[in-house]
Structure formats: structure tokens, C-alpha cells
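Weekly puzzle thread! Below is a chain. First person to post its structure in C-alpha cell form gets bragging rights.
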Amino acid sequence: MRVIVEADGGSRGNPGPAGYGAVVFAADGSLLAERAEGIGVATNNVAEYSGLVAGLSAARELGATEVTVRMDSKLVVEQMSGRWQIKNEALQPLAHAAREIANQFDDVTYSWIPRAQNAYADRLANEAMDVQAGKRAEQPAPVDTAAPAPWTGATGTPTRFLLVRHGQTELSVERRYSGRGDVPLSDTGLQQAKAAAARLAGMEFGAVLSSPLGRTRQTAAEVASAAGHTVEIHDGLIETDFGGWERLTFAEAAERDPELHRRWLGDPSVAPPDGESFDTVHARVRRTRDDLVQRFAGQTVVLVSHVTPIKSMLRIGLDAGPSLLFRLHLDLASLSIVEFYPDGNASVRLVNDTSHLNG
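Winning reply:
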């Protein structure tokens, strides 16, 4: 997977109060991640290199294999390309750190761009310096309604959840409700699990947790084995209990209980016959989130689960309503990333990425 990293840094005084900004885009231009931080008193060049390190680190965390770096710093681009020597001793450790990360990709290229084309990273750097100075970051003028929202100013080290949906099963092929029924992965599902494991093996994480159901345990076992971890079971990650609709198709459930099924689609407090409502699932996932954030504070953890719990975790991160459950699509063996900060902020970094299944 090739991504584009744009990075910038600035110093108000050179040296003076400094900060950096970095953003990662997919090849199609969609936003994957952004990073920004005030770094105290430093020079412009130190801030720019710090932005590069942060951008490359974010790309690595996303599992990228190839990176195109775009910066408006001629110095950084030429030095990282090997055409200029690095004589400044303050820059040498940063350049070394950037190269250490860059060496983990299959390919990294560096390109100089005019400052006007690096506006996103520049804005993040300035907002980071504003936050560092105790100022409220100015909101940019609403030029493009499709532009990503500005950095939130979240502080502290977040707890990052790498959310993996299990691979294909016989019931998912037939598009049947699959809740507490313990169905195994199909042959295709096992290959999907191995592909997800290979993707995650290039990312750093401290633990692998799984729903207790077989399809998630199989998927989690592949992920854990590829990274040298073991699997911990967490009941809070289990799928919705669809009760009497288990193994039925949408049409079959609607035919069996037409009025209840209609109300269930519009009201998260309504449960299937002898089953579990989405409100109940959401409350369970919120308790699970609270437990895991406390246990793994500031760490990165893989959570292998099912479509509804993963949607609920993303819903918490987005502070969204229950309609997200019906409007968000999650593919089998997909990867999503959400971060929860100690100050109460949250950031959804990735949703439904299946690039590892396309190889």
C-alpha cells in the first residue's frame, strides 16, 4: 500500500516556540492520519524534521509499504534524498530516526513542493504552536466543505485500538444473521485472516484481544502468531445476540416478525425475539472500552471482533448517534483504527481498510 506523507514544521523566532504537523493520505487522496505537536523552543529545521519523523511513523502504524514524502523544505528533501550532507549536529539524530523508520518500507521517495501545496501540514503545525502557547487555534475560513476538520487539540498519549473484523464464514457468504452462533471461518475466511495478520505484523502493538466466538478466535490466532503474541479472550467483544433471527436472512426475519423487524431497524432499544438490542450492545462495548483504556493506557492493542461491536467502538470515537450502525459498512477482515485520549478526546484514524486483501 502506497501512501502520501506531507509534513511541515515552524518556529516563531527561529529558534523559538516551535511545532510540527504531518498528514497521511491514501493514493486516492482520502485522509488516513494526521499528527501535530508543539516541541518547545527549536529551529525551523528541527521542527520540519520532527514533522517528517511523525509522518513516517504514522504511515508505518497504518501498515504502508511504500511512501511518497512531500515537503516544502528543500533542506530536508535534499538531505533525506542523500544529495546534501547533514552538517548541523542538531539535525543528525532526527535524520537518523527518519532513516530508521524509512528503512522499514519497501520504497520511500522525497519530493519538494511549494509552500502553498503544503497548506494542510502547515496549518497543523501552526495550530500545534497555538495550543502550545495556550491559545485557541483559529478555525480556517470555510473554503472547501469537503476539507478535513482541523486538529482537535487532544493532549496526552492515546490508547489506540486496531479493530479487526473476523474473516468470512458460511453464514456471511449467505448474508444471514450471525450472532452468538459459533461458526468457523471458511477457507476464504482463513486466507483473509492470514492477510490481516500479515498487514498487522508490520505495526507495533502490545496485545491481541478477541471475542470468545470461534470465527474471531481463529482470526485473532493468525494475528497473534504473526506478531509473536498470544490471544486474550474478552467477553465484551462478542457479537450481538440475534436471538430467534439467528441464521435467518434479512428477508426471512422480516417475513417471520414483520412489525418487530421494522421497529428494530429504526429503534436501537428494540431487541430481536429473545435477543439483544443495539442499545444493550453499545452499553456493553462502552464498558469494554473503559476497561481496556484503563488497562492498556497509552498502548496500542488489537481487538478482533464483529461488525456491531466494532461499529459501536467507532461510534464512541466519533461521538455519533445510533444511525451510524445502519450507515457504516464494514467488510470482513477489515481494519479500522480509533484512539482514545486521556483528556477525553478521541480520534478515528481509519475505517474499513481492506487494502491487505487486494494482493
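Puzzle host: Confirmed. Bonus trivia for everyone else. The CA atoms of residues 5 and 24 lie 5 Å apart.
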